[in-house]
Write a structure and sequence with these properties.
Layout (H helix, E strand, L loop, with lengths): L4 E3 L2 E4 L6 H10 L1 H4 L17 H17 L3 E7 L2 E12 L5 E5 L1
Antiparallel strand pairs: 1-2, 2-3, 3-4, 4-5
């Protein structure tokens, strides 16, 4: 299975726990823009943008989606710097072949 897509200056690859600081910085810098699309936080749950362990758990959940074939998350790296994230999710197999793309 291909886990990385590279083209010129852009690399798409799954986020890893070591990407926490770069991911957190992008999320904080873009907070106002992202806010309208963010899901509501569950009370008492740590914020993955502020908690490295919660981010690592998020990376693990995305890895399980890859293994199950139900979702594929990619960090978007431009010139080796994290610029954003894109996810293919809720993938349904069979005759329907459906899913969604979220940035």
């Amino acid at each position: 299975m291909i886990y990385e897509l590279r083209g010129g200056r852009v690399l798409l690859r799954p986020l890893e726990p070591g990407d926490f600081h770069a991911w957190s910085e992008v999320r904080e810098r873009c907070r106002d823009w992202l806010l309208p699309w963010e899901p509501a936080s569950l009370p008492g749950r740590p914020d993955p943008a502020r908690d490295p362990q919660a981010f690592a758990a998020r990376c693990g959940a995305r890895r399980r989606e890859w293994e199950l074939g139900t979702g594929y998350g990619f960090g978007i790296f431009v010139d080796d710097a994290l610029a954003g994230e894109i996810n293919l999710g809720s993938i349904q197999r069979g005759p329907y072949q459906n899913g969604y793309v979220g940035y």
